[in-house]
Amino acid sequence: MSTLSLAVRDSTTMLRRNLLHARRYPSLTLNLLLTPVMLLLLFVYIFGDTMSAGMGAGADRDAYVAYLVPGLILMTIGSTMIGTAVSVSNDMSEGVIARFRTMAIHRGSVLIGHVIGSVLQSVLSVVFVGVVAVAIGFRSTDATALEWLAAFGLLVLFATALTWIAVGMGLISPNAEAASNNALPLIFLPLISSTFVPIDAMPGWFQPIAEYQPFTPAIETLRGLLLGTEIGHNGWLALVWCLALTVLGYFWSKSVFDRDPR
Protein backbone atom coordinates (compact mmCIF):
# COMPACT_ATOMS: atom_id res chain seq x y z
CA MET A 1 0.00 0.00 0.00
CA SER A 2 1.36 3.42 -0.96
CA THR A 3 2.03 6.12 1.64
CA LEU A 4 -0.88 8.19 0.32
CA SER A 5 -3.30 5.26 0.45
CA LEU A 6 -2.17 4.43 3.98
CA ALA A 7 -2.64 8.04 5.06
CA VAL A 8 -6.14 8.22 3.56
CA ARG A 9 -7.18 4.88 5.08
CA ASP A 10 -5.90 5.67 8.57
CA SER A 11 -7.21 9.25 8.51
CA THR A 12 -10.65 7.95 7.56
CA THR A 13 -10.52 5.51 10.47
CA MET A 14 -9.54 8.27 12.89
CA LEU A 15 -12.28 10.51 11.50
CA ARG A 16 -14.84 7.77 12.10
CA ARG A 17 -13.52 7.37 15.65
CA ASN A 18 -13.88 11.09 16.41
CA LEU A 19 -17.38 11.26 14.95
CA LEU A 20 -18.42 8.29 17.08
CA HIS A 21 -17.08 10.04 20.17
CA ALA A 22 -19.04 13.17 19.27
CA ARG A 23 -22.21 11.11 18.80
CA ARG A 24 -21.80 9.23 22.06
CA TYR A 25 -20.95 12.35 24.10
CA PRO A 26 -22.96 15.19 22.54
CA SER A 27 -23.27 17.22 25.75
CA LEU A 28 -20.05 19.19 25.19
CA THR A 29 -21.02 20.22 21.66
CA LEU A 30 -24.55 21.14 22.74
CA ASN A 31 -23.27 23.20 25.67
CA LEU A 32 -20.92 25.13 23.39
CA LEU A 33 -23.74 25.73 20.91
CA LEU A 34 -25.84 27.36 23.62
CA THR A 35 -23.49 30.34 23.87
CA PRO A 36 -24.04 31.77 20.35
CA VAL A 37 -27.73 30.82 20.35
CA MET A 38 -28.37 32.52 23.69
CA LEU A 39 -26.42 35.60 22.58
CA LEU A 40 -28.45 35.69 19.38
CA LEU A 41 -31.75 35.59 21.25
CA LEU A 42 -30.51 38.03 23.91
CA PHE A 43 -29.26 40.68 21.51
CA VAL A 44 -32.26 40.40 19.20
CA TYR A 45 -35.14 40.34 21.67
CA ILE A 46 -33.67 42.18 24.66
CA PHE A 47 -31.15 44.61 23.18
CA GLY A 48 -32.31 44.63 19.56
CA ASP A 49 -34.12 47.99 19.53
CA THR A 50 -31.40 49.72 21.51
CA MET A 51 -28.53 48.28 19.47
CA SER A 52 -30.22 49.07 16.17
CA ALA A 53 -30.51 52.73 17.21
CA GLY A 54 -26.73 52.97 17.11
CA MET A 55 -26.58 51.78 13.49
CA GLY A 56 -27.98 54.98 12.04
CA ALA A 57 -31.30 56.44 11.00
CA GLY A 58 -33.87 54.02 9.66
CA ALA A 59 -32.31 50.95 11.25
CA ASP A 60 -34.70 48.65 13.11
CA ARG A 61 -34.58 45.27 14.80
CA ASP A 62 -34.72 43.43 11.47
CA ALA A 63 -31.71 45.39 10.24
CA TYR A 64 -29.84 44.50 13.42
CA VAL A 65 -30.67 40.80 12.99
CA ALA A 66 -29.15 40.94 9.51
CA TYR A 67 -26.06 42.65 10.94
CA LEU A 68 -25.68 40.33 13.93
CA VAL A 69 -26.08 36.87 12.41
CA PRO A 70 -22.86 36.69 10.31
CA GLY A 71 -20.77 37.52 13.37
CA LEU A 72 -22.50 34.95 15.54
CA ILE A 73 -22.07 32.31 12.85
CA LEU A 74 -18.30 32.76 13.05
CA MET A 75 -18.52 32.89 16.83
CA THR A 76 -20.19 29.49 16.64
CA ILE A 77 -17.12 28.13 14.89
CA GLY A 78 -14.92 29.58 17.62
CA SER A 79 -17.11 27.98 20.30
CA THR A 80 -16.86 24.49 18.83
CA MET A 81 -13.07 24.73 18.94
CA ILE A 82 -13.13 24.33 22.72
CA GLY A 83 -14.51 20.85 22.21
CA THR A 84 -11.69 20.11 19.77
CA ALA A 85 -9.01 21.24 22.22
CA VAL A 86 -10.58 19.19 25.01
CA SER A 87 -10.84 16.09 22.81
CA VAL A 88 -7.20 16.30 21.73
CA SER A 89 -6.05 16.90 25.31
CA ASN A 90 -8.02 13.87 26.51
CA ASP A 91 -6.37 11.68 23.88
CA MET A 92 -2.93 12.89 24.96
CA SER A 93 -3.47 12.62 28.71
CA GLU A 94 -5.32 9.29 28.73
CA GLY A 95 -2.61 7.41 26.84
CA VAL A 96 -4.54 6.86 23.61
CA ILE A 97 -1.95 8.69 21.54
CA ALA A 98 0.85 6.69 23.16
CA ARG A 99 -0.96 3.51 22.11
CA PHE A 100 -1.41 4.79 18.55
CA ARG A 101 2.33 5.51 18.36
CA THR A 102 3.05 1.79 18.81
CA MET A 103 0.71 0.77 16.00
CA ALA A 104 1.45 0.54 12.29
CA ILE A 105 -0.65 3.53 11.31
CA HIS A 106 0.16 6.75 9.50
CA ARG A 107 1.55 9.12 12.11
CA GLY A 108 -0.38 12.20 10.99
CA SER A 109 -3.72 10.42 10.69
CA VAL A 110 -4.58 11.07 14.36
CA LEU A 111 -4.40 14.84 13.93
CA ILE A 112 -6.02 14.77 10.49
CA GLY A 113 -8.96 12.82 11.91
CA HIS A 114 -9.41 15.41 14.64
CA VAL A 115 -9.22 18.30 12.16
CA ILE A 116 -11.68 16.91 9.61
CA GLY A 117 -14.08 15.81 12.35
CA SER A 118 -13.96 19.24 13.98
CA VAL A 119 -14.58 21.02 10.68
CA LEU A 120 -17.60 18.82 10.00
CA GLN A 121 -18.96 19.52 13.49
CA SER A 122 -18.41 23.24 12.95
CA VAL A 123 -20.38 23.16 9.71
CA LEU A 124 -23.25 21.30 11.39
CA SER A 125 -23.18 23.79 14.28
CA VAL A 126 -23.33 26.69 11.83
CA VAL A 127 -26.32 25.09 10.13
CA PHE A 128 -28.08 24.78 13.49
CA VAL A 129 -27.44 28.42 14.42
CA GLY A 130 -28.45 29.44 10.89
CA VAL A 131 -31.79 27.68 11.27
CA VAL A 132 -32.40 29.54 14.54
CA ALA A 133 -31.45 32.82 12.84
CA VAL A 134 -33.88 32.22 9.99
CA ALA A 135 -36.60 31.35 12.50
CA ILE A 136 -36.22 34.75 14.19
CA GLY A 137 -36.19 36.72 10.95
CA PHE A 138 -32.79 36.61 9.26
CA ARG A 139 -32.98 36.71 5.46
CA SER A 140 -30.29 36.70 2.79
CA THR A 141 -32.31 37.66 -0.28
CA ASP A 142 -29.61 39.77 -1.98
CA ALA A 143 -26.91 37.06 -2.06
CA THR A 144 -26.30 35.25 -5.36
CA ALA A 145 -25.52 31.55 -5.71
CA LEU A 146 -21.84 32.43 -6.22
CA GLU A 147 -21.82 34.50 -3.02
CA TRP A 148 -23.43 31.65 -1.09
CA LEU A 149 -20.74 29.30 -2.41
CA ALA A 150 -18.02 31.79 -1.43
CA ALA A 151 -19.58 32.15 2.03
CA PHE A 152 -19.52 28.39 2.51
CA GLY A 153 -15.91 28.25 1.38
CA LEU A 154 -15.00 31.00 3.85
CA LEU A 155 -16.67 29.13 6.71
CA VAL A 156 -14.83 25.88 5.91
CA LEU A 157 -11.50 27.67 5.53
CA PHE A 158 -12.00 29.64 8.76
CA ALA A 159 -13.03 26.49 10.63
CA THR A 160 -9.95 24.66 9.33
CA ALA A 161 -7.66 27.48 10.47
CA LEU A 162 -9.15 27.64 13.97
CA THR A 163 -9.18 23.85 14.24
CA TRP A 164 -5.44 23.59 13.72
CA ILE A 165 -4.92 26.27 16.39
CA ALA A 166 -7.27 24.39 18.75
CA VAL A 167 -5.42 21.12 18.10
CA GLY A 168 -2.18 22.81 19.11
CA MET A 169 -3.82 24.15 22.26
CA GLY A 170 -5.06 20.68 23.12
CA LEU A 171 -1.65 19.13 22.56
CA ILE A 172 0.10 21.48 24.99
CA SER A 173 -2.59 21.18 27.68
CA PRO A 174 -1.99 18.73 30.55
CA ASN A 175 -5.72 18.06 31.04
CA ALA A 176 -9.17 18.89 29.71
CA GLU A 177 -9.66 21.86 32.05
CA ALA A 178 -6.45 23.49 30.86
CA ALA A 179 -7.40 22.84 27.23
CA SER A 180 -10.77 24.51 27.76
CA ASN A 181 -9.08 27.55 29.33
CA ASN A 182 -6.43 27.77 26.60
CA ALA A 183 -9.12 27.81 23.89
CA LEU A 184 -11.18 30.59 25.51
CA PRO A 185 -9.66 33.31 23.26
CA LEU A 186 -11.47 31.69 20.35
CA ILE A 187 -14.74 32.73 22.05
CA PHE A 188 -13.44 35.97 23.52
CA LEU A 189 -12.09 37.48 20.27
CA PRO A 190 -15.51 37.61 18.53
CA LEU A 191 -16.83 39.57 21.52
CA ILE A 192 -14.35 42.38 20.81
CA SER A 193 -14.81 42.35 17.04
CA SER A 194 -17.48 43.84 14.78
CA THR A 195 -19.93 41.08 15.72
CA PHE A 196 -22.31 43.24 17.76
CA VAL A 197 -21.63 46.84 16.69
CA PRO A 198 -19.76 48.52 13.80
CA ILE A 199 -16.17 49.40 14.52
CA ASP A 200 -16.93 53.09 13.87
CA ALA A 201 -19.31 53.06 16.84
CA MET A 202 -16.56 51.93 19.23
CA PRO A 203 -14.28 54.27 21.24
CA GLY A 204 -11.33 55.46 19.18
CA TRP A 205 -8.72 53.79 21.39
CA PHE A 206 -10.50 50.45 21.09
CA GLN A 207 -11.04 50.42 17.32
CA PRO A 208 -7.55 49.07 16.42
CA ILE A 209 -8.06 46.17 18.87
CA ALA A 210 -11.31 45.22 17.15
CA GLU A 211 -10.02 45.80 13.63
CA TYR A 212 -6.63 44.08 13.64
CA GLN A 213 -7.64 40.56 14.58
CA PRO A 214 -8.76 37.55 12.51
CA PHE A 215 -12.46 37.59 13.30
CA THR A 216 -13.32 41.11 12.12
CA PRO A 217 -12.28 40.78 8.43
CA ALA A 218 -13.87 37.31 8.29
CA ILE A 219 -17.10 38.66 9.78
CA GLU A 220 -17.18 41.64 7.42
CA THR A 221 -16.52 39.35 4.45
CA LEU A 222 -19.27 36.92 5.44
CA ARG A 223 -21.62 39.83 6.12
CA GLY A 224 -20.95 41.26 2.68
CA LEU A 225 -21.47 37.90 0.97
CA LEU A 226 -24.74 37.11 2.75
CA LEU A 227 -26.23 40.60 2.56
CA GLY A 228 -24.88 41.64 -0.83
CA THR A 229 -22.95 44.62 0.57
CA GLU A 230 -19.42 45.89 -0.08
CA ILE A 231 -16.58 43.71 1.17
CA GLY A 232 -13.67 45.95 0.25
CA HIS A 233 -10.25 44.78 1.41
CA ASN A 234 -11.74 42.49 4.08
CA GLY A 235 -11.94 39.53 1.72
CA TRP A 236 -8.20 39.47 1.15
CA LEU A 237 -7.50 40.07 4.83
CA ALA A 238 -9.77 37.18 5.81
CA LEU A 239 -8.05 34.90 3.30
CA VAL A 240 -4.59 35.87 4.55
CA TRP A 241 -5.62 35.34 8.19
CA CYS A 242 -7.08 31.91 7.38
CA LEU A 243 -4.01 30.74 5.49
CA ALA A 244 -1.61 32.14 8.10
CA LEU A 245 -3.46 30.52 11.01
CA THR A 246 -3.71 27.22 9.15
CA VAL A 247 0.02 27.12 8.44
CA LEU A 248 0.89 28.27 11.97
CA GLY A 249 -1.49 25.79 13.59
CA TYR A 250 -0.35 22.90 11.40
CA PHE A 251 3.38 23.31 12.05
CA TRP A 252 2.79 24.07 15.73
CA SER A 253 0.63 20.96 16.18
CA LYS A 254 3.01 18.78 14.18
CA SER A 255 5.98 20.01 16.21
CA VAL A 256 4.29 19.27 19.54
CA PHE A 257 2.89 15.93 18.37
CA ASP A 258 6.29 14.74 17.14
CA ARG A 259 7.88 15.24 20.55
CA ASP A 260 8.29 12.36 22.95
CA PRO A 261 4.92 11.49 24.55
CA ARG A 262 4.32 12.89 28.01
From the alpha carbons, calculate the radius of gyration and give it in angstroms. 19 Å
**What percentage of the residues does DSSP assign to strands (E)?**
under 5%
Query: How many beta-strand segments?
Result: 0
Give, in order, the helices and strands.
HHHHHHHHHHHH
Shape category: elongated
Any low-confidence stretches, pLDDT <50, length ≥5? none
Mean pLDDT: 84
Helical proportion? over 70%
Find the structural class using helix and strand composition. mainly alpha
Q: Distance N terminus to C terminus?
A: 31 Å
Main β-sheet: number of strands, strand sense, barrel status?
A: none
Count of helical stretches: 12
Describe this structure in words.
Helices cover 75% and strands 0% of the residues. The model has no long low-confidence stretch (mean pLDDT 84). The protein has 262 residues and is mostly helical. The chain has helices spanning 3-24, 27-45, 48-53, 61-93, 96-101, 109-135, 145-172, 176-182, 185-191, 207-211, 215-227, 234-257. It has 12 helices and no strands. It is elongated, with a radius of gyration of 19 Å.
